[in-house]
Amino acid sequence: MLLLVVQLCVDGLAIGFAAPPSPQSTSSPTMVCSALDGIFTAFQSHRLVGIGDYHGLAQEEDFYASLIRDKRFAKDVGNVVVEFGAAAQQDTLDRYLSGEDVQYDHLRKVWSDTVGWTPTVVGLGYLNFYAQVRAVNLELPPEQRIHVWLGDPPADWSKIRTTEDLRHVPDRDQYPASIINSQILAKNRKALVIYGAFHLRGWKDLREFVEDVHPGAFFFIYPHTGFEQTSCPECFERAAQDWPYPALVTRSAKSMGDGLPVQGCRLQELANVEEWLSDFSEDSKLYLGPATSLTTTQESPDLYLDLKFRAEIDRRTFLLPHNHLEPATTPQVSPHYLHAPSGNKDGTMK
């Protein structure tokens, strides 16, 4: 999988505990702190923290697991809404996360019965996320366990035979928004929302459907993945050398809002570095390391070792409609599964 190169020249980001701030000048101070501490601080003033999932980014998927394992998460948040799971399999996931034994071909439907992923969810980091939640939950009493809400709309693939059948599947933004509005916000709960950035920009998407009812509910974070300009990475990476890892960065000090303390946060000037992804209207930036160190997640070998499963996924892929998968007459492992991509010198991904 190729990681899409996005223009990301930075002045920092905004842990904006309100609406996303207007662009700052290149001389404005930024606030840098531990990503975990910054996120839990964001939850003090926002009931929803949305992390833009850069699909297939291994380091970001590892960070989800770290966030879930932090003891503050179950205590202070307790809910996660994810794009990489099919709502039709909510009962199956609930049983698995509560500690029940679930047969693998049934559990696999949690991530493979989605309608918005092509050909389907294959990243091991996403699969590991569910395993991490299960492990955390087994150490907690039932009333304190983390609940994962599957946001991809329900679809009964056994009854979907034509492209027209797919038209009856609920909207991929409105459906998770309805979960958040009814199950999280209406009940005064908090939730981490892990969705692709295009669902969280607030432009006729999941976030807008939520904030039409609950204005300002979201705090939006997006990961740093690289630059197009060759002059940007050198300047930026020098500034980031002594940051905590992973780090959360804000556009300006005053955007921390209400004087909420964040352990380890400090001000820093990032001279000669431009605005960081301002077109995505994110509140804060997640720094997972130099762009050249970022890799794609390894893939589950199911599509290459289970030919019956592969044939079914191919059938669904054709209905979406997209091209068929490459023929697989004998079980094999994808080269991509064995080798993660390396980075270019300019900070972009191969």
Any key phrases for this structure?
350 residues, alpha/beta, Rossmann fold, nine-stranded mixed beta sheet, 14 helices, 9 strands, disordered N terminus, disordered C terminus
Question: Could you please describe the fold and organization of this structure?
Answer:
- By secondary structure, the chain is an alpha/beta fold.
- It has one domain (29-338): Rossmann fold, CATH 3.40.50.11550.
- The chain has 14 helices and nine strands.
- The chain has helices at 35-45, 58-69, 71-76, 90-97, 104-107, 109-112, 124-137, 163-166, 174-185, 206-211, 231-240, 302-305, 307-319, 335-338, and strands at residues 29-34, 48-52, 79-86, 147-152, 191-195, 218-223, 247-250, 266-269, 284-287.
- A nine-stranded mixed sheet has the order 4-3-5-2-6-9-7-1-8, sandwiched between helices.
- Helix 2 packs parallel to helix 7.
- The chain is globular.
- Mean pLDDT is 80; it is low at 1-28, 253-261, 271-280 and 330-350.
Q: What's the tally of helices?
A: 14
Would you give the CATH topology?
Answer: Rossmann fold
> Which structural class should the secondary elements be placed in?
alpha/beta
What does the average pLDDT come to?
Answer: 80
In the CATH hierarchy, what is the architecture at level 2? Answer: 3-Layer(aba) Sandwich
Distance between the termini: 9 Å
* Percentage of residues in strands: 5-15%
Q: What's the SSE blueprint?
A:
Layout: E1 29-34, H1 35-45, E2 48-52, H2 58-69, H3 71-76, E3 79-86, H4 90-97, H5 104-107, H6 109-112, H7 124-137, E4 147-152, H8 163-166, H9 174-185, E5 191-195, H10 206-211, E6 218-223, H11 231-240, E7 247-250, E8 266-269, E9 284-287, H12 302-305, H13 307-319, H14 335-338
Parallel strand pairs: 2-5, 2-6, 3-4, 3-5, 6-9
Antiparallel strand pairs: 1-7, 1-8, 7-9
